[in-house]
Task: inverse folding
């Protein structure tokens, strides 16, 4: 008979618990034992009750002894007291395992024989595996010798209704394979982030809420979302929340519904999801809530679909139904859905992505990871994610974020250095091939078809109509070895690589299209004049989002210098009639009086996570408001400005992607070219702003004249102040934009060398902004040098202060460092000490 083993440990010792379970695997497979620890608590269960129940039903209780265990009130209080009582009554055997050196002589546990041999801590052994083998040997002896006193458990009421083991396991299942080096199994609760939803609005106003709104409000809801958006996971979340509120939710996959009889469908679901529950009891309970997944896949015709849904809404006042976004068009044909409120699931924005990344980083170490390490790793992973998951490239769905996080972790674990994030896109494409069951030997064939198809679409500037697709394959089969058109299209469309709306065929996601266009250009540029002409066209329209992304993908597919040279040439021609802004006192003298008049900065009392949340929410709002019409033509000057910013981003992306293969000189040349383009635009702006000063002030004055309480002098003064605020804001913003565009953590040495060579106030600020954004640490020495260099330059000194203060708001900084920064920058940190002490108290 299998012995139940209860493992008690401090969460700081998670790694030791994992090692013990690993070494117990032979006993588990042999059926000699089955183990339980608190990581197996299922969401919705009361954790204290669950621990108590499993402790009382165990025959072998193992305590992992360390200073953290001895310091835990719950371990040393509740669990030890109960276990000692069971040990004395011979209901269970209690075995201490010493994992880290600790003084436990005064503990009641010290009276028991500990493991391993001589109670020498696991961590003190020269070979920890040998220590664990010794422990397992000791456990075997205890299992063989110990005969527990018969325990008469209270009989369970035969009519008690509770969720089945099957449904509880399903609720924790991520349904995709997730591996993490800190935990053996990743459960849905470990990484689930509650998505935002957009409610249907009758007044055209955007109404965005957290999905938690649904289980609080209840009612009839139909929730639409793209494929792999997380609709099933949302229903699992709602299921658990409803269980906690004592409702009786039922999950139904619409694909399995082949009959319109709700009694037949629900009875089958009840049998799987609950113990001691029949349809009659359920329908009369007053607690029934139905969750229907993937309505667009229901196996009923329109007539019986309506009958089924109508009967469901008669049975319960609360339903949650999911469907694909495209199913919205069918709503009107199903009267039973007329009363359902329409909900649209949103992709993971900046705030939600940060939440998911933090959960991933914290797996297995959530109780002992320090804020600095958490935020540092979070920002590093977020910056890498944001390069790949960009607007209109890879959709920010949970599955893609998790797949990429796994890729980053796997490469870090194997000490691999990805020379280009293009490899991540490539892996996503290969995974799609695997799902489509494309043989490895056929990968090259499918890659070639997609390469040629993308090029045809690029040349035609539109997706291919069905007749155009036939012509494409005819030409393809003449040029290359023939392929089975229907088979190829079937697999590529069926697994979301291509999409076919019945009229045109194109790529499902832009990143796949950009990837293959870039591949075609990289492979044919040297030998094909048509390709060279298209590259010139791309470069001329660099301000377009799609063209900029194609250029970035080209740098993944080729390391040939031509692409860098072409990009540098475009950047060098932008605002080439201007010199680079240096932001010295002479250039900024017109702002001197304004800088003296504005209030001094104060380092306010702010909570870091709240500040980060607010920052991410602002980004999400901006992204939702953005006009996606990137391909429209614009005025020359606006196109030049857009090209400047887009060109800087491409330069930085190449540096970040290829830092391992670019020479220092090439990296510096690219960074300098990108930065100089931005600084020439800034020089242009300052000159134009100064020339147009009177017109701008007049325009602002006309607006202010609508306020009758202001005198003419007050209007003039406020208009001038507004103008200078605007000018200062642009100087500040462009300086930071240059830093965020060309910056890279791996190339910090290059920027430091550039600062020494260039030495202007402008580049001093750019380098400091890069250091804080990409290195995440404050150098008191460097900031001190910056202050000395900028002491008479009030504009640049103010920008420096704002950069440092923003970093403190967004990232943990020790109080002593804040004091030093306060003295260096002349910024008050009053009240911050109180905030820091509160944080310590929470810990």
Result:
């Amino acid at each position: 008979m299998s012995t139940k083993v209860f493992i008690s440990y401090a969460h700081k010792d998670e790694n030791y618990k994992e090692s013990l379970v690993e070494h117990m695997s032979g006993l588990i497979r042999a059926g000699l034992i089955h183990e339980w620890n608190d990581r197996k608590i299922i969401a919705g269960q009361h954790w204290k009750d669950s621990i108590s129940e499993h402790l009382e039903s165990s025959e072998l209780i193992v305590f992992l002894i360390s200073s953290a265990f001895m310091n835990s009130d719950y371990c040393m209080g509740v669990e030890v007291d109960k276990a000692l009582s069971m040990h004395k009554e011979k209901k269970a055997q209690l075995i201490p395992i010493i994992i880290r050196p600790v003084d436990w002589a005064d503990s009641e546990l010290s009276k028991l024989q500990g493991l391993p041999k001589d109670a020498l801590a696991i961590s003190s052994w020269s070979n920890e595996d040998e220590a664990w083998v010794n422990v397992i040997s000791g456990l075997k002896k205890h299992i063989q010798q110990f005969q527990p006193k018969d325990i008469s458990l209270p009989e369970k009421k035969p009519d008690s209704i509770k969720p089945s083991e099957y449904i509880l396991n399903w609720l924790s299942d991520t349904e995709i394979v997730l591996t993490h080096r800190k935990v053996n199994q990743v459960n849905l609760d470990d990484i689930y982030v509650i998505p935002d939803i957009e409610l249907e609005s009758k007044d055209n106003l955007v109404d965005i809420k957290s999905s938690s709104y649904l289980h609080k409000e209840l009612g009839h809801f139909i929730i639409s979302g793209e494929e792999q958006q997380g609709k099933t996971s949302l229903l699992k979340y709602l299921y658990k929340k409803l269980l906690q509120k004592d409702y009786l939710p039922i999950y139904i996959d619409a694909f399995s519904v082949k009959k319109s009889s709700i009694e037949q469908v629900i009875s089958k679901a009840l049998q799987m999801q609950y113990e001691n529950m029949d349809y009659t009891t359920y329908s009369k309970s007053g607690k029934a809530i139905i969750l229907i997944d993937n309505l667009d896949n229901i196996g009923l015709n329109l007539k019986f679909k309506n009958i089924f849904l109508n009967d469901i809404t008669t049975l319960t006042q609360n339903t949650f139904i999911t469907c694909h976004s495209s199913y919205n068009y069918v709503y009107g044909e199903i009267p039973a859905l007329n009363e359902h409120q329409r909900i649209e699931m949103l992709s993971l924005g900046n705030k939600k992505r940060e939440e998911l990344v933090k959960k991933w980083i914290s797996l297995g170490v959530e109780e002992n990871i320090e804020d600095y390490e958490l935020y540092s790793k979070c920002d590093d992973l977020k910056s890498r994610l944001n390069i790949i998951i960009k607007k209109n490239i890879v959709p920010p769905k949970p599955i893609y974020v998790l797949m990429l996080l796994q890729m980053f972790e796997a490469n870090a674990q194997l000490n691999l250095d990805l020379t280009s994030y293009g490899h991540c896109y490539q892996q996503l494409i290969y995974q799609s091939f695997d799902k489509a069951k494309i043989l490895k030997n056929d990968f090259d064939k499918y890659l070639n078809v997609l390469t040629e198809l993308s090029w045809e679409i690029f040349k035609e500037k539109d997706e291919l109509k069905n007749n155009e697709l036939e012509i494409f394959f005819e030409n393809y089969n003449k040029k290359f070895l023939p392929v089975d058109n229907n088979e190829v299209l079937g697999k590529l469309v069926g697994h979301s690589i291509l999409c076919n709306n019945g009229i045109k065929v194109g790529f499902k996601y832009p990143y796949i299209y950009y990837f293959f266009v870039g591949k075609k250009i990289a492979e044919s540029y040297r030998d094909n004049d048509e390709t060279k002409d298209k590259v010139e066209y791309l470069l001329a329209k660099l301000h377009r989002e799609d063209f900029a992304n194609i250029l970035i993908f080209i740098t993944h597919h080729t390391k040939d210098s031509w692409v860098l040279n072409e990009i540098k040439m475009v950047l060098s021609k932008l605002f080439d009639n201007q010199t680079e802004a240096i932001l010295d006192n002479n250039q900024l003298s017109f702002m001197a009086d304004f800088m003296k008049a504005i209030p001094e900065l104060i380092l306010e009392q702010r909570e870091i996570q709240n500040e980060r949340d607010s920052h991410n929410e602002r980004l999400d709002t901006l992204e939702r408001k953005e006009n996606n019409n990137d391909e429209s033509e614009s005025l020359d000057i606006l196109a030049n400005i857009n090209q400047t910013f887009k060109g800087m981003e491409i330069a930085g992306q190449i540096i970040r992607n290829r830092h391992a293969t670019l020479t220092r000189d090439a990296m510096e040349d690219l960074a300098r070219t990108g930065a100089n383009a931005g600084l020439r635009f800034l020089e242009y702006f300052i000159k134009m702003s100064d020339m147009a000063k009177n017109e701008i002030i007049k325009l602002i004055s006309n607006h202010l004249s609508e306020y009758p309480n202001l005198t003419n002098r007050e209007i003039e003064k406020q208009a001038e102040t507004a103008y200078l605020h605007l000018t200062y804001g642009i100087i500040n913003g462009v300086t930071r934009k240059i830093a965020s565009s060309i910056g890279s953590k791996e190339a910090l040495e290059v920027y430091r060398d550039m600062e020494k060579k260039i030495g202007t106030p402008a580049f001093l600020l750019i380098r400091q902004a890069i250091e804080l954004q990409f290195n995440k640490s404050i150098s008191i020495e460097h900031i001190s040098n910056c202050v000395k260099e900028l002491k008479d330059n009030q504009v640049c000194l103010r920008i420096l202060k704002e950069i440092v203060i923003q970093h403190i708001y967004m990232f943990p900084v020790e109080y002593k460092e804040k004091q030093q920064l306060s003295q260096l920058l002349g910024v008050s940190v009053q009240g911050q000490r109180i905030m820091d002490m509160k944080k310590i108290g929470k810990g």
